Amino acid sequence: MKKALLGFGISLIALSACTPAQPPQAQSAADQSRMGQVSYGMLGPGPINYGQIRDEPTYGYNGELPRSSFRTTSTHRPDFGDDQDKIREIVAQKEGINPGYVVIAGKHAWVNVRFAGDYSDQERQQKLKSVRQSLEQGIPRYQVHLNEMDQ
Q: Which segments of 18-151 does DSSP mark as H helices, in order?
């Protein structure tokens, strides 16, 4: 019986050694980065790097940054809609001109205007020139293009 079990064990070991070896499985970069995050979370930065944690710079502000921050929701952050509203206000302040659509793309602002009354071509050009100057002073970051719309 011992000889049979010994023979069976040796043959089992011999046969298992003859099976084709499995190639090692490569880990993706995402798996490796997750493993790095886990080991860092478990073990920390190590004794050499504790100075980086302890010696972080401090900032002297009282709760809010001077400019608008995306971390706090209490301050107003200007966007393109505010610029469009400001352009419409500037155009509406001019007498005889009504603002239309305002399209902003990059540094360009296309402004559609409508004249409230009948004006000669010379008067229209003067009013458009006045609106353009007002827009360049009011919002200098945009290159303004005025489009005259039909009544």
A: 29-43, 50-54, 80-93, 121-138
